[in-house]
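quick q for whoever's on today - can somebody do inverse folding on this one?? i tried earlier but teh output was garbage lol. tokens:
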């Protein structure tokens, strides 16, 4: 069950985008020590595809990357979340990590509002450093790790 009526401009924008495009992107600005992040709302309802979240990139870029996945779904060419992909960042492979529901309240409140709870899957898009390291790699720089907290357990990448 999803919400169909919004009470303010933000909620109406989300519902309108999901109706028109199939999803909406929410951008959260960096605040203090907390990194910026963006996430989708509507991919699961429209395409039966997990919602996505990405950390550590400016809101506009995060939304552009998430929109690549949404557009691929609209075009009938979904990206396989079980293996790395070069479809998002030219020259770099991004990975996908399932996010435990325990993190939903803190990070994807607008998605929880839309779905009226936690009944949707969520995957994190994890991007590599310029040297090709991921946040879980032992040699990854601490600042890189802090900018991109990994919310779940990486799949076998």
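ok took a stab at it. sequence:
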């Amino acid at each position: 069950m999803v919400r169909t009526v919004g009470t303010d401009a933000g909620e109406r924008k989300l519902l309108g985008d999901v109706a028109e495009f199939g999803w909406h992107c929410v951008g959260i600005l960096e605040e203090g020590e907390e990194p910026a992040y963006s996430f989708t709302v509507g991919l699961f309802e429209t395409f039966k595809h997990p919602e996505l979240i990405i950390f550590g990139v400016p809101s506009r870029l995060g939304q552009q990357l998430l929109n690549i996945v949404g557009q691929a779904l609209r075009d009938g060419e979904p990206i396989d979340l079980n293996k790395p992909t070069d479809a998002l960042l030219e020259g770099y492979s991004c990975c996908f990590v399932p996010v435990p529901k325990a993190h939903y309240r803190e990070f994807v409140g607008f998605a929880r509002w839309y779905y009226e709870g936690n009944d949707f899957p969520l995957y994190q898009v994890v991007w590599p450093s310029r040297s090709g390291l991921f946040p879980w790699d032992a040699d990854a720089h601490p600042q890189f790790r802090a900018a991109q907290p990994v919310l779940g357990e990486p799949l076998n990448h």
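fwiw Residues 9-147 form one domain. also The radius of gyration is 15 Å. so keep that in mind when u check it
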